[in-house]
Design a protein that fits this description.
Helices cover 17% and strands 43% of the residues. The protein is α+β, with helices and mostly antiparallel strands and 140 residues long. The longest helix is centred in the middle third of the chain and has 13 residues. The chain starts with 6 loop residues before the first strand and ends in a 9-residue tail after the last strand.
């Protein structure tokens, strides 16, 4: 399968704080921008941060998965295992506060994967994962 880059636009309530987080903390390359948005190279995908006033009516939810409370909604990318390991080490050096620290999920089962969750400064939940066997991405 030839995978194409995705485009994802997310709301942020402080464009400069989030721009700094994605660029300097996560290490993503900044692309085009305006006074109200900025895009980033998100492991080859286009992530766009759009300024939006804070909405205090949002309710944080989660679903139990493998004994952990996974935040919903969330987004991220599937990495190869070496990239996941180096990126998670980078995040730990940057003192990221994890919702779910990097660990192996579904160990010894179909779909075994490394995963981690954290939030950006606007409260958007991100997940990065890597499969032991990439061909088990959709394994049951």
């Amino acid at each position: 399968m030839n995978i194409q880059p995705f485009h994802l636009a997310i709301p942020v309530d402080n464009l400069e704080t989030c721009r700094t987080f994605y660029r300097d903390t996560l290490g993503f390359t900044e692309g085009r921008s305006s006074d109200h948005w900025v895009d980033f190279d998100f492991f080859g995908h286009q992530l766009v941060l759009h300024y939006q006033e804070k909405n205090n009516t949002e309710i944080a939810t989660s679903n139990p998965v493998d004994g952990k409370d996974v935040p919903v909604p969330h987004f991220g990318v599937v990495l190869d295992m070496e990239t996941f390991k180096s990126f998670s080490a980078h995040l730990q050096r940057k003192n990221i506060t994890f919702i779910i620290k990097p660990y192996i999920r579904f160990e010894g089962k179909p779909g075994e994967q490394a995963t981690m969750f954290f939030k950006d400064p606007s409260g958007n939940a991100l997940e990065f994962k890597a499969f032991k066997e990439m061909n088990q991405l959709f394994a049951k």
